[in-house]
Amino acid sequence: MLLELLSHFARLAPVADRYFAGRAVNDKAQQETLAGLAAEVRGGLGKLEEAREGLGRQLQEQGAQAAELSVEVTRARMGVESVEARLAGTEKKLDRVRWMLGAVFGLLVMAVALLAVLVARGLH
Questions:
Q1: Quick one: pLDDT at residue 124?
Q2: How many angstroms separate the CA atoms of 21 and 122, rounded?
Q3: In angstroms, rounded to a whole number, what is the distance separating the alpha carbons of residues 115 and 106?
Q4: What's the pLDDT score for residue 23?
Q5: pLDDT, tens digit, for every residue of 55-91?
Q6: How many CA atoms are closer than 13 Å to the CA of 64, on its beta-carbon side?
């Protein structure tokens, strides 16, 4: 029985050789394809890393600019507050000057009225 099977094995050996040879070629093609895909993925990851680094630099630059802008805004606010304080003081002084001018004008009107009365009495 073993001898009968050997003749079948002899016929199957070339078929098996062709199958394994074809499979080896197919496996090699798949391996090359996978290696190509891996290279593309690595390249893509490298580009993503470069983009991430670029965005990180831009974010740091914008953070520094925001800090500088914050300092400038604070300085401007302090300047405006200083001007507002000086303006409030000037308004108070202006109110006092107005009051004084009103008083002086009132005294002047009274002096003119008194002078008119004195002139009118002196003419009679």
A1: 60
A2: 146
A3: 14
A4: 77
A5: 999 999 999 999 999 999 999 999 999 999 999 999 9
A6: 5
